[in-house]
Amino acid sequence: MNLSTVRFNKNDRPAFFRELRRRVNQYFEDEQIDRHANVQMAVKTVFMVTLYVAPLAMLLFGGLQSAALIVLLWAVMGLGMAGIGLCVMHDANHGAYSANPKVNQALGGLINLVGGYHTNWKIQHNVLHHSYTNVHDFDEDIKKGVMRFSPDQPARRGFYYQAFYAPFLYGLMTLVWVFVKDYVQLFGYHKRGLLKAQGQSFARTLAAILFHKGWYLAITLVLPIVILPFAWWQTLLCFLMMHFICGLILALVFQPAHVIEETHFFKVDEEGSVENSWAVHQLMTTSNFANGSRLLSWCLGGLNYQVEHHLFPGICHIHYPQIAKIVKATAREYGLPYHEHPTFTGAIKSHFRLLHKLGTDTYVSGEGVGAAKQMTA
């Protein structure tokens, strides 16, 4: 089924999102602030980019001899990679960082600095994930062959212990992006016409991927192997460690936002329709966590406010704590769910409980919904 044939139910409580947008727009007008980045966001951007670039510069030009310091710098780079992805690149590639498209393009391109490719990321995340959240066969974030993230995926014996091996696979996520996924996506997106929709040709995209992967690997792997006082395999292990740290962080931020007991999963019907309106669908399939932690919100780029992000991806995450009050109140007013876990730990536990249920084929839809409603009451 083509994306153009998937339809949401426009008759499903359309007044909710109209009123919600009006209230959010009124908030920015009343406060006389811009919905894009502010000074606080600029400071965070500098910090996160420095967290990655400064250790890399020290590794390449610092003449380091201490093995402990070298390993530590690689670990810090893993944190910096995650910080760039969560706090800078993500907003920019949504067009939420700045009203100036050139600024968004430049900062969105930082994904290339950490081994990804911006066009593929936009298609997977902006087009497929945000449009078709938790929809079987359309949301690539839950379309994984090595794990069962949706009850609509066939159950297999190999999934039985997925709750135990999941952290290891999560740690490999960005490594797979670098060496495999971008190329697989290239062919898939070309075949489905998604590259063309982004104004990209197959040949041009392939050349760009090879170019960006080439200089990325030259700077972060080849040069360190040549320069650092380690055997090549020791430097390779450090490179793998850096990616493992980043991959694990990213997965443990994004998975508890959608793949938990409280959220729902959907399939399109024979006519290509989804039962809810788009906005209601986002509330059904998305959850927040740890909204009371200012430190965690700062470190995670506001992505613990996933409900607000999915409803308003064009608003910079720096504003999510304020508009979350509006979203929550409006959802309650219209009798709609607003899923949230008060702690990050609680969300993680719910995610791994769901992984276990899906792996053992004991999942029952909506088991956690009662708990979620109780928490927001």
Q: Can you offer a commentary on this structure?
A:
By secondary structure, this protein is mostly helical. It has two domains: 3-36 and 266-375, no CATH class; 39-258, no CATH class. 63% of the residues lie in helices and 3% in strands. The protein has 17 helices and four strands. The protein has a two-stranded parallel sheet with strand order 1-2. Helix 1 (14-31) packs antiparallel against helix 15 (320-333), helix 3 (67-93) packs antiparallel against helix 4 (101-108) and helix 11 (232-258) crosses helix 16. It is globular. Residues 370-377 have low confidence and may be disordered.
The tally of helices reads 17
Major sheet characteristics: 2 strands, parallel
Proportion of residues in extended strands: under 5%
How would you describe the oligomerization state of the chains in this entry? single chain
Transmembrane segments: 41-61, 68-92, 159-180, 201-226, 232-254
Pfam family, one: FA_desaturase
InterPro entries: FA_desaturase_dom, Fatty_acid_desaturase
GO cellular component, one term: membrane
